[in-house]
């Protein structure tokens, strides 16, 4: 079965310089993939002469006359950029012409437009952002990463229900182990929302393992597949880990380039250091899914290079193939029926 | 001028096995330091025969018949452990016999007892926990790390005032650069408390530089000396960074011990890897100060080894010498006068 992805070709810090080569690599790798590149057709067609011929009906360009700026306010983008590459790409998802949209553009604008155009899945109050990080056990999925700064227990519970479907689909795990992010593992710890969410999760059919702390994202004492938290905490945790990774790589580089002896050591250790770099390469974890909407939207890091953007497209491919949006809708419908 | 520190000798995962050797090293290093070891005098005297003779009036043992368990509920410790090593050590601070107390015991119990025994500085609503992390610019201090799960803007503002005095004292920086932790740097980002706290900080005399994101703790684009946040977010950020550090060191170790070639590479790279490990060694950042109380309490990591516990004692030495508690009280008094 073929999948079609709409790419916001103009989004991100590098626009078509990154989105086009990444798209072409994905087309080459997956013969069942179709891509619609959305953006200024003058620019895109000029860069795609050979590719359009090569991929024929698997690759097309959809014109969009506007572009959402990286620092544009979401409300302004929503009101005045109705023909932006971002909006047109999301429209293609709404109209069923694409199974997902991938954009490296302005996160706030992407969320506002996606929510406005696609609407919410009935039963879900708020969309959430979910992504993956490496852990000593493999991967940890975490949500919400910034869509919601204040969350009730019910919101956190809904995130768990949606997140479980994503983890099942992406990791192929039957019953993902779900943890609730807190500042201690004891019952008495945490704020009111978290304590109330724990009660909802305990009485649900989800494989809820209890409270987990921040270290569980990358290296906890027990495996956790999905960590649920509000968007403020999740975003801070994600960025704190990014900062830690940058500190470690900066220090390592600094120490290995100190003098002739350390530089020689770096040469000898190069194969290992290369594997190390690859094993924690954030580009291989690029791509956050907006879930809770009636259509798939994948947000790539704005500064994504070709490899990183390609990773985000591949995530979209998997989530389309697995029918993540439908699975979430079905699960929500069943869960709501059971409750009411 | 001499300083006296009361050590909860029984606290932490290893008790006197760690607290005693660390204390003796500090006594050897600082001739102006006096230490009172608090705990079971039978146990302590037995381990201190030579040291008590050597350090004479600089080292003493204060008997305490009880011990707070690592998993004991704070309220239970507060009510039923009135002769615990933790409580007696804090009493010594209240009575002016010690300038600070250092404990590796149960955090919740330590905070509850410290608050009950020492009382708050007038004008401060809640105590906070502050600690230091390495950054590409040197160090970043961050508070609150878990004392308060829900904070108003006023609480965050008070944390900034207190934290500034700690950073001035510990780092010798005249006007520490203060950032407010948020999920974006734009004005519109964040929850209501954070937005309101930003207004208070902007109109204060503090060197407030604006919102910072999670990555600024270890490696932001601009230097920030003090990051202010609530205890839930601060605790998650701190532990997320701990998890990232553990993941990186685990991966590095794994890759270097893969086969005979990588093991040889590890031998060649050993001096650099050793320096790397030291440069991010969490033991050198051990010690979190409870501030806002009428006396100094330093919390060491429960699993601290000798080096880590020694670091926490040294932090207490600096904060006593610098008169951090008095400086906070004075600043709070002046700030309150100016406001009202």
Q: How many domains of chain A, as an integer?
A: 2
Q: At CATH's second level, what is the architecture of the largest domain in chain A?
A: 3-Layer(aba) Sandwich
Instruction: Work out the strand percent of chain A.
Output: 15-25%
- Supply the CATH class of the largest domain in chain A: Alpha Beta
Question: Which bin fits the share of residues in helices of chain A?
Answer: 40-55%
Average pLDDT across residues of chain A? Answer: 93
Distance between the termini of chain A: 37 Å
* Helix/strand/pairing category of chain A: alpha/beta
Q: Give the C-alpha Rg of chain A.
A: 21 Å
Give the overall shape of chain A, derived from the CA principal axes: globular
Q: pLDDT under 50 segments of chain A (min length 5)?
A: none
């Amino acid at each position: 079965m073929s999948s079609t992805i709409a790419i916001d070709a103009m989004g991100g810090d590098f626009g078509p310089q990154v989105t086009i080569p990444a798209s072409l690599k994905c087309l080459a790798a997956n013969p069942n993939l179709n891509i619609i590149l959305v953006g200024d057709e003058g620019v895109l067609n000029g860069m795609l002469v050979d590719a359009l011929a090569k991929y024929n009906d698997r690759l097309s360009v959809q014109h969009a006359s506007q572009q959402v700026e990286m620092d544009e306010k979401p409300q302004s983008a929503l009101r005045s950029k109705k023909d932006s590459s971002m909006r047109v790409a999301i429209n293609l998802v709404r109209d069923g012409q694409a199974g997902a949209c991938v954009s490296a553009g302005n996160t706030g604008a992407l969320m506002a437009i996606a929510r406005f155009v696609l609407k919410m899945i009935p039963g879900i109050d708020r969309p959430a952002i979910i992504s993956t990080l490496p852990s000593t056990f493999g991967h940890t999925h975490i949500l919400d990463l910034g869509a919601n700064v204040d969350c009730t227990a019910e919101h956190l519970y809904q995130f768990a229900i949606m997140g479980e479907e994503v983890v099942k689909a992406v990791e192929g795990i039957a019953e993902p182990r779900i943890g609730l992010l807190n500042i201690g593992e004891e019952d008495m710890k945490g704020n009111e929302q978290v304590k109330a969410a724990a009660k909802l999760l305990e009485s649900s059919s989800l494989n809820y393992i209890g409270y987990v702390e921040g270290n569980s994202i990358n290296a906890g004492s027990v495996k956790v597949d999905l960590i649920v938290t509000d968007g403020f905490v999740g975003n801070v945790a994600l960025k704190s880990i990014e900062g830690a990774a940058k500190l470690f790589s900066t220090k390592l580089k600094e120490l290995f380039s100190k003098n002739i002896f350390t530089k020689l050591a770096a040469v000898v250790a190069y194969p290992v250091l290369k594997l190390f770099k690859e094993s924690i390469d954030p580009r291989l974890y690029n791509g956050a899914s907006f879930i809770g909407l009636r259509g798939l939207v994948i947000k790539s890091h704005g500064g994504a290079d070709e490899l990183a953007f390609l990773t985000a497209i591949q995530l979209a491919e998997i989530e389309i193939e697995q029918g993540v949006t439908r699975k979430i809708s079905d699960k929500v419908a069943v869960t709501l029926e059971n409750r009411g």
